[in-house]
User: Fold this.
Amino acid sequence: MTNDEILDGIKAFVEAFAEQRLRNYITRIGKPGAIGKNPKEINDAIWGTIKVSPLEIVILDCPLVQRLRFVRQLGVVHWVYPGATHSRFEHTLGVLHQAQQLANAINQASTEGPSMAPIDGAKSALIRLCAILHDIGHGVFSHVSEHAISRRVELRLALQAFSTCHELGGKIQLSELVAYHLVEAPAFLEMLAIAFDQLGNGGMATGGSKEAAAQVAKRIQRAIIGRHIDEDVPLLHEIITGPFDADKLDYYARDAKHAGIPSTLDISRLLQKITTKRIPSKEMPEDILNALNEHRDARVLFGLKWSGKAILDELHLARVLLYSKIYNHKKVVAIEAMIEALFEALAFHPEADVLKLIRLSYELSDDQLLVADADVLFRAMDVEERPPALLSFINTLLAKLRDRDLYISSLSLMASYPADPWGDDRQQRRGLDQVVSILTNEQKLAKLRRDVATELRSIADVLPQAMGGIEAEALGYAVVISAKPPLGSGTEIDRALISMGEKFVRGRELEINQTAWADMYGLGKPQGVLFAPRECAAAVFIAAERLLRRDFDVVLPASALEISKQDRDEVDKVKRQLEEVGWYKGVPHDIRPVPERLRRQDVEVKVERIAAKLEQIDEPQSETPQRRAQAMRERVVSWLAQFRDNDAIECALAALDAMKVLGREDNYAALTQFAELNPKFAGATICPLGAVKDSSAVQTYLSRDLEKIFPRASLIEEAASAGGDKPIVFLDDIVGSGSQTLDILGNWFEDDELKQDQLEEIRLPFGRQEREFLRSRPVAFVFIAGWEEGLERIREAATKLKLDATVYAHLTDNDLAFAFEGALKGMDPEKVGKFRERCQSIGADLLASNGKDETKQAARALGYGGRAMLLASRFNVPTQTLTCLWMGGKHDDVDWHALIKRRAKS
Amino acid sequence: MQAVEDVRLVTSEEFVTDLVCQLKLSHVEEVKLADTFEDKRFARAYEMLVENQDRFGLAVDFSLATNPYHGDSSTLREAIYALRDRRIVAINNPRLKTVEFKVDEDDANYYLDHSSIPRSLMAQIVEETFGAGTARDDKR
Assistant:
């Protein structure tokens, strides 16, 4: 439907609705003597006696206003605050009372004397009618149904088109549009004309009764949409909708009182602080003047005295407390979500359209809807078909409402979660922001909801018991994503005029912004919530979690469960069941269920110990950091979880426990012991075995702790250039098979047999001077750790090159840990065997995903040399170390995250 | 007017986010909301968006038109507060009237690239409504 079709349709419906509701009443009041000539007094629970005029009685008694007795002011709040059962009708009377209070205060504050009171009898009568009629457009459950229907994009655009057309400077709500059309409906005008005919119009209009009715209705219409209704008191309409209007003064107090919540608002003080001034037009705020048509020398403005500006604080605070304690109470929002689910389900009816949904919301009262069944609702919508799945869902939902078997929060959506290990990750931040921004876009929100439902159906396919009996067809409307706007800026309150000398300034121009505390109150609250029936709440969380991970690159942190008040055990149970049936295949590890082995109590202690050890390692910094937790503890757990299988995790834990990290103390111990065993090297020059890009450079730097034994350290080229007769000690951290050292020597001495081309490293040859220098003195190759195999190859190479060489390693095979050569001794050999196969398979996949051919995959799957060493230095991880510890890539088509990243040589 | 399913709905938050990002890329670091100067500029930007919505297959779901009696836009201010919750802007200065743009250029480009509103249109809107000559004492 186009905007015009919708707007015309609403107007036509409203006129028919007015006719249907008013016809009998018009007939009744048209009879002689039916309209009383005396005023009445009504006792209000909050304000006491409220006087109403005979004209007002006619309006109050009409079925359009009486209907408000059956519409609760707070929609569904009484499910949470049992006392909050007050009706829109009671509120209407309260607004009438407060409108008069404000009018009286404005008049009393006038300096022009009682006879020149700015709000005379006619204006007062008009504003009182506006008060009575301001809410007649409300449908069932007040704002709840209105907001539910207004989620239809076509209605939103139509309402926007109306607002633009009438230059409202904001957006009209459906209830305001309905009220706007009700007061100009032919039946309403006829009723008003009858009342004017018999009672007069109190000076509100001129001409005959019909003409007067049309004039008055037009002005009420203007007040309803926030346009001025008086040229002399241009902000008169703000008594009904303004910074401190009668509406707020009543509902702030009435809602708080009925809910049993204290209110900070002091109305009597507010009324005392009202001030009124007749101001020359040329000194009035330009914005107001621009909106006025008639030329006048001066006009009346009202506002607050300077001494009363603190009342704005009270208004802000009262508003914040009401919203946070009542209107946005999580259970209230949950029940509203159920009403939304109801309207969403109704919208699924093949014959449904937005006009039929609107019609339904005015045909039934709150209680009628509650005791109704789906048939009744379909009849109210005037649709014929009765789709069984819809019937069943709606009947169940209505029964749930009656029984207070409420929807619960499945997932609270936030722009940032507390204690989020990925909180600083740009992808995580952007992903969460993207989700939150969708909450305000009904079109995208509808898609998000459909996507959640699709995920949910995929769960239902493999694990139907997780749906708690909800039929697959109903999953499209069973879940509701509720988004409440933030408490916000309080712009309307800050528009209040504050007296400064002879002028007025607006509240927003004051030096201090009163909304600051209101803002603080709202910080940290979720921006949206996924509500679902209790029976499938865990499944909905899991479905949403997978969706967010896949489509938004968001990993929900543990705190998301806490904030969502999810049952962690239930969620874990369902996730494990889903993993068993393969639902997580191809899904990143970081959202899969925590494997059972990692839930045991000993894990915490072991992981703490392992994390403390691994935190010593200074990882290479990367421009594009991998998607993984910052904290080492989290990182260890998530690395272990990638194995999925409990036995493999058990072995991996033991492997990490056995892992050694070489530190400064090992450098010190290695050189000290080497010097003791080889006294001829006392006074030797320490040289890095390799170039400055190699880790040997760092070990050379650390050797300065032993300056007394080894007084000099330099590059071999510098040492050769300096000459002398001191021995040379080449230092490096780790040697495995020795290939790299052989490559270095092969390049230095240009020995092709020793070069290891497969390493693809570029090294420059020595000149003659360096070679002779090395051959003329004792040379040592000292390693902090080394394999016997590699040490032996170096000895042979040194002999071949005619070097007087000593080759030494502080820690050798027996001192080092190898995953499958003793590090896991004492564990079930069968489990260890399977773990080895797993590591091999993972390592091969990672190598493949990093572009290595099958030969290399086979040779290096457990680490270069194939021994699955468990060793790292504080600056890097050797390639001989178990591959899946340091290499990232793809395994089973899913990202595998390295526990410790390695800096590649090339 | 195109059918609802054929258009991309644009919300106030998305439009104001895009404006903030485009301004940030133009080296504007903040706006001040003590009076209604910015409300009017944002309202002009909004009008340009509305004028172009059909051409780009957009449907504008809001109005930044200023209130006829008070000159401000509650929708603009609510959107800015929502952006504050999303850490796109900050209002943590003493008077809470200065809206500081907190997005970095990377994020600004990201938001603009992922927006329903074409970048070319946003650039044109900012150039014409916030361009040189219309600014007051904003840091530039």
